Amino acid sequence: MSSPASVARHPIHPMLVVFPIGLWTFSLVCDIIYVFGGREPMWNTVALYTAVGGIIGAAVAAVPGIIDYLSIEDKEVRAIGTRHMMVNLGALLVFIVASIARAKGVSAMMPFLLSIAGIVLISFGGWLGGELVYVKGMAVQPVEELAAEQERQSRRDRARLRRVV
Question: What is the CA angle 62-13-122, rounded to 5?
Answer without folding.
Answer: 65
